[in-house]
Amino acid sequence: MTRKVLTFAALAEGGFGLLLLTSPPMVCRLLFGAEVSGLGVTVGRLTGMAIFALAIACWPTGDSRSAVYGMLTWSTLAIVYLIVIGLTGLAGFLLWPAVVVHGAIALLLLWAKR
Predict the structure, then answer these.
(1) Per the confidence metrics, is the pTM higher than 0.85?
(2) 25-38 residue pLDDT tens
């Protein structure tokens, strides 16, 4: 079960990383309801690369304990930060669904690891 959950999480994060890498302005509008340009696009692309790399690093192979902890840490931190952003009013159409998805991934990882 852990392998399936980790595979799902890695695919979801990898897809999001690629989306952010290719179109930071669109992701920013959908998640935060804000425009981004200039250096923000550059940082967005760099972030997309990092999330994609996380997905590759967390791909399940053999003993995936560190991959589970890595993805669990990312999902938990993402939940906290997205909630903070949402409470400050920078909520786009997909912000709260992103919180729910990260919450579901975190819970599934915890459940599968028990």
Answers:
(1) yes
(2) 999 999 999 999 99
Q: Token pair of 8, please?
A: 């799902």
Tokens of 23: 């179109």
Record the tokens describing residue 73, joined without a space: 């840490």
**Beta-carbon count within 10 A of 61 CB:** 9
User: Where in the sequence is the domain holding 72, given as residue range(s)?
Assistant: 2-113
The total domain count for the chain is: 1
> Residues 65-103, buried b or exposed e (16+ Cβ, 10 A)?
eebbebbbebbbebbeebeebbeeeebbeebeebbebbb
Pairwise CA distance, residues 38 & 6, whole Å: 34
Low-confidence residues of the chain: pLDDT under 50? none
